[in-house]
Amino acid sequence: MFDRMVIEVVPRGRRFRAQLRFWVNGEDVVEAAVGAGGRGPYAADVLPPGVPSPLRATGEAHRLVLGEPECTGGCCGFLSVVVQRHGGIVEWSHWQVPWEDGGTPYPPPELHFDAVQYDAELAQAATVPWWQADA
């Protein structure tokens, strides 16, 4: 059974530009890994107009930053994952999670998405006019 992802574009707030949140199987991956005060990547960095998104999965593995804690990634580290396509499957694996006071938190499990659904969700997120809320 495949994992299911929904990408949410969060409009600009008082502190941050428009950002993304990744809901996998009904859970906010960023919040679960970095805490309630953390943030996802900026929409402008992950959904740049006119060029392929770094979220795009290809046969070549690449690391993608998905979030950071409220204290910033420069302080405690970033939430990142390796994204790779294996035929009809997109895999998120080899997680790196921010440091916590009590030690290194347990990373999320490997996730496997149906490549067609993954591509459709990425295309849908790219249609959200985040740049209007990011000015």
Topology at a glance:
Layout (H helix, E strand, L loop, with lengths): L4 E6 L8 E6 L2 E2 H6 L8 H4 L15 E6 L5 H4 L2 E8 L2 E8 L14 E4 H12 L3 H4 L2
Antiparallel strand pairs: 1-2, 2-3, 4-5, 5-6, 6-7
Structure description:
- This protein is an alpha+beta fold and 135 residues long.
- Helices cover 22% and strands 30% of the residues.
- It is built from 5 helices and 7 strands.
- Strand 1 (5-10) and strand 2 (19-24) form a beta hairpin.
- The chain is globular, with a radius of gyration of 14 Å.
- The mean pLDDT is 83.
Helices, by number, come to 5
Describe the global form: globular
% residues in beta strands: 25-35%
- Contiguous runs where pLDDT drops below 50 for at least 5 residues: none
What is the residue-averaged pLDDT?
83
Helix content percent band: 10-25%
Radius of gyration: 14 Å
Structural class: alpha+beta
Order the strands across the largest sheet as they lie in space. Answer: 4-5-6-7
Query: What profile does the largest beta sheet have?
Result: 4 strands, antiparallel
The helix/strand order is: EEEHHEHEEEHH
What is the terminal separation in angstroms?
A: 40 Å
- Could you give the count of β-strands? 7
